[in-house]
Amino acid sequence: MQRRNKSGKSSGTNAKVHMLDMDLKDILREQALRFLPAKALFRSLTVCRDWKLQISTPFFVHNQSVSCRSFSGVFVQPTGALPFFLSLDEMAYGVPDQELKFLPEPVDVKSSSNGLLCCVGRGPERAYYVCNPANQQWKKLPKPSNDHGSNPAIAVVFEPSVLSFIADYKVVCVFASTDIEGAYEFEIYSSDRDSWKVSPEMYFVNSKYTYERDRAQGIQFGRVMYVDGVVYWSMSCGKTLTLDIRTQKAAEIIVYGYGNVYGVYAGGCTSSYLGTMDGHLCTSSIRDQCVNVTVIHNRHANTMSSNASKANLNPMHASRLNPEVVKISCDKPEIFLTWDGITVFRVGNDVFSHDVKTNATKALVQGERKINDGHTIVPYVNSLVSLM
Fold first, then answer.
1. Beta bridge partners of 309
2. Is residue 217 pLDDT above 80, yes or no?
3. 139 with 129: CB under 8 angstroms?
4. pLDDT tens for residues 21-41?
5. Mean per-residue pLDDT for 4-20?
6. Three-state SS for 177?
7. Measured between alpha carbons, how far is 187 from 108 in angstroms, rounded to an integer?
8. CA distances from 58 to 10, 42, 102, 376, 384 (A)
9. 139 torsion bin: left (phi>0), alpha (psi -120 to 50), beta (else)
10. Residue 370 and residue 73: Cα distance in Å, rounded?
11. What is the residue-wise DSSP string for 208-261?
12. b/e string for 191-203 if b means 16 or more Cβ within 10 A?
């Protein structure tokens, strides 16, 4: 029931009248600015004094981190080199230091979540850092209690909350157990406790369905991503390891049509890669001039304990590439990722983005091979989320 004032009008009606009485500049300042990405907001500081004051307040920074969730681009890191940011729209999305030199040492980018990056230092300590490249705030995490290996498979997990002004995040790492052969454990860092804790959950490799190389050298973990409460690690055995953050239950799944860690081409099209669409896990592939995205609609079907459970798939979303922008000819396309329904892929030396929902195709890099096989590629949201 709506509350009524002395005049008999409901509070909801009063709010609508108040909105009608506001000037357009006030509506933009109070209602629209918080949906803009960080780079666009930094440019907006010069519009007027009122906008500058509004954007500079901690309350606005918090609201923007909750409201702005749009996929902004990818951080790319060639092996042994510094990372760089590839923006989907250079006027709207960007960071002041894409090589992350504001951190105390050179780092390897490992994962991202809603504006936060998780990185590993290249020094002998191999320290973990969580940072926001938009405002250059960062935190060095305490040393974990277990050895995560030379190439840790870590994921940062962050869900902005209206009720929490301080970023509450977790960092999850899967590592080979030193106590039980063929077992893998999970160590989780929580920002609210500022400490690590080993999960009681363990993952056991089924040697019957594992390559001889993996049995001898251990499972190698590839891309890692966090979607809708679950962390996904691609594995060298061709399967995907999952961990539900809330229940801390692990599972091994096979996603139908999902290619291996290294993206092998098969059947005249690119192999599929895991990504997101409308907040759900999806697979994506390109055949001829068409981008195909299939949403995995039942998350719980993917996380139930099973040696080789196939994920439930929705009908495929097919979207044609603009032939005036990109032509699939003798060079087979390579998908880097699909995030929020936008696929980033390469044909030859050119890199493109394609929005499955709007059918818009855009060239991001042309004539210069900036992204190669084996490069680390993580999605990024241009958020102002504060770590202070």
1. 253
2. no
3. yes
4. 567 767 776 778 889 999 999
5. 52
6. coil
7. 20
8. 31, 15, 22, 33, 10
9. beta
10. 14
11. GGS-HHHHHH-PPEEEEEEETTEEEEEETTS-EEEEETTTTEEEEEE-TTB--T
12. beeeebeebeeeb
Looking at residue 41, its amino acid is L
The identity of residue 103, as a single letter, is: L
* Phi, psi of 196, deg, nearest 5: -100, 150
Residue showing tokens 């997990």: 157
Nearest partner of 343 among 359, 325, 331, judged by Cα? 359
Q: Say how far apart CA 202 and CA 73 lie, in whole Å.
A: 34
* Residue 208 burial (CB count, 10 A): 6
- Model confidence at 302: pLDDT above 50: no
How many C-beta atoms surround the C-beta of residue 313 within 10 A? Answer: 17
Which DSSP category does 151 fall into?
S
φ/ψ (deg, to 5) at 121: -65, 150
- Length of the chain (residues): 388
- Give the HSE-up count for residue 291: Cα atoms under 13 Å, Cβ half-sphere: 34
Across 207-220, average pLDDT: 55
What are the pLDDT digits (tens) for 240-296? 899 999 999 999 887 654 443 333 223 334 455 788 988 888 888 888 788 988 887
Give the sheet arrangement for strand 361-365, strand by strand.
Answer: 334-339, 342-347, 350-355, 361-365
* Residue 58: its H or E element: helix 58-67
Return the structure tokens found at 331: 């060079």
Rounded CA separation 167/184 (Å): 29
Helix (H) or strand (E) holding 290: strand 290-295
